[in-house]
Amino acid sequence: MDANKDRFPLLRKILKTIGLPAEAVDDIVERILDWLSTKDAPTAGFTALPFKLRDDFLSPAEASFYQVLRAAVGDRGSVFAKVNLADLFFVSTGDHRQNRALANRVDRKHVDYLVCDLKTVRPLVALELDDQSHNRADRKTRDELVAGVFSAAGLPLLRVPVKTGYAPLEIQSLLNPYLKSVAPTVAGAAAPGTPMPAPIVVGSASVSDTASATSPLCPKCGGVMLLRTAKTGANAGGKFWGCPNFPRCRTMLPIKK
User: Fold this and answer.
1) Which of 122, 176, 191, 205 is the most exposed place for a label (fewest CB within 10 A)?
2) SS (H, E, C) 110-153
3) Is the pTM of this model over 0.70?
4) Does residue 69 register a pLDDT over 70?
């Protein structure tokens, strides 16, 4: 991004004047440049797309810590690197514009490592490897935002300073509280290892998918829950409340009799 720091100086000045942080300004400029590059150089003009595999997917420090992290996690979970925040979280305010505005703030941001349940691939804990770049003012602003997102969503985020070497037992001790069986924190949410519910077929004549004045709010994201009917599985024909944001939010509540 450094090569584009001097692009669109007037636009940058206007955006800063209205109160946008430097990181947000950089993101907007990057989007404009991406759009212009796509517009000016359509892929149809190439007989072979000019893409090459990068050699720096993980820096040496990141790759080294990844191996230590895998050893510390062992068979208690799966480790993923550079996970986009948009693949982890969604916004639910009840207002589409606010949703989009908040989603844009985390767009193009990622977390260094994500540890998930081995069977369900449910996220358990995330880790950030902090080098000296995190001391910069713009990175501190970014880190505060990311930490706030993780906190709001209830997903633990651990920060690990970059060192010349790591003791696997030290990292294992850091992770132990998060790699045990995790009880559901939301009413109606399934615990790790619980079989997934039968698929919900929306729009089928045999499936009720409606909201009413008596519909409860989703305890996780606040959406007005929909009355649904399981089509297959052990609970086929049974009714339940399902979150309207499915599959991003899989919260279900039983029908109170």
Assistant:
1) 205
2) EEEEEEECCCCCCEEEEEEEECHHHHCHHHHHHHHHHHHHHHHH
3) no
4) yes
